[in-house]
Amino acid sequence: MVLPPLDPRAKWSIRVVHGTSGDPLLEYEPDTQCETASIGKVFLLVEVARRIEAGTLSLDQRVAVPDEYGVADSGLLYLMRDKDLCVADMALLVGAFSDNLATNALIHLCGLETVRQVAPDLGYRDTALHDYLRDERTPELPWTPSYGTARELADVMRRLAAGDVVSAAVSARVLEWLGSNADTTLVADAFSVDSLAHLGPDYQGVQLRNKTGSTDFARVDIGFVSGPRGSVAYAVAANWKGLDTDLRVPVIDTMREIGEQIRFAVTGRAREDAAA
Questions:
Q1: Secondary structure class of 27 (helix, strand, coil)
Q2: Is the pTM of this model over 0.85?
């Protein structure tokens, strides 16, 4: 794989690895820490799945949404009439729509300090979910909802696929929630899967599990992709905080270029070979 031109105005952290061996296929500043927006929700899902498998949390347990952690933007729950859903549905909303309100409800249920500790307990030093999601992040609040490096985030996805995050059952449950992710607009755009229905193999036999994060100064996509020729774990993060210019267009274009190389790596097929 070949690193495409990167906009030098952005801070990048990129790592693509072989899905089974973990050998690097592409990387750029993989240990640079970026703000990762919603990516840290993966660690919340790990904690929820761990409790479900341990029997300390029921799939059917209803979760109240605390007023003090009300938040809008990403997701559907803030628009819904009935907001007190069960644990399983809350986790599905987080995986499928990166739902901020469902995230806050589950963080409150598990405890923020407990969720903060998930990534360090998995051996990661520079990656974590750090805070609740907020409509406004004022100076007295924690500096970001989540942060991470491409090296550690690609490793998270590789380990989930290997069944090595807490246990095989926990890993499988997290991947099932991520399999419903409707955001395929970044790296995953190159895979051409049906954004609303890709639990099974889709275009060119590609199967995708991914999580994205977006703010007005960040785009991040982490995932595990498998196909007829193999599998790949990836993490691509870009930040441009403090710039007057919004870099989302050049950043997303670069992410798609990386995605095209990943698609070819796992399928061995050029895009024009789809009908062959």
A1: strand
A2: yes
Instruction: Give yes or no for a contact between 79 and 102, defined as CB atoms under 8 angstroms apart.
Output: no
Is residue 259 in a domain? yes
- Where does the pLDDT of residue 114 fall: very low under 50, low under 70, confident under 90, or very high at 90 and above? very high
pLDDT digits (tens, 9 = 90+) for 61-101: 999 888 888 887 789 999 999 999 999 999 999 999 999 99
Count Cα neighbours of 161 within 13 Å in the Cβ-side half-sphere: 26
pLDDT tens for residues 30-70? 999 999 999 999 999 999 999 999 999 999 999 988 888 88
Residue type present at position 124? Y
- The token pair at 89 is 């549905």
Give me the half-sphere count of Cα atoms (radius 13 Å) on the Cβ side of residue 60.
0
Count of beta carbons in the 10 Å neighbourhood of residue 244: 5
SS3 content of the chain, % helix, strand, coil (to 5): 40, 20, 45
When pLDDT is averaged across residues 200-225 and rounded to a whole number, the result is 97
Does 184 fall in a domain?
yes
4 in any annotated domain: no
User: With helix as H, strand as E and coil as C, how does 227-262 read?
Assistant: ECCEEEEEEEEEECCCCCCCCHHHHHHHHHHHHHHH
The answer to whether position 6 is within a domain reads no
Q: Give the chain's domain count.
A: 1
Q: How many CB atoms within 10 Å of residue 157? A: 26
Q: Please provide the size of the chain in residues.
A: 276
Q: What is the CATH number of the domain that holds 212?
A: 3.40.710.10
Looking at every residue in the chain, the average pLDDT score rounds to 95
Q: Which domain holds residue 262?
A: 11-273
Report the C-alpha gap between 47 and 27 in whole angstroms: 29
Instruction: Give the span between the Cα atoms of 114 and 208, in whole angstroms.
Output: 29
From 237, 198, 196, select the one nearest 214 (Cα to Cα).
237
- Specify the 3-state DSSP secondary structure of 189: helix
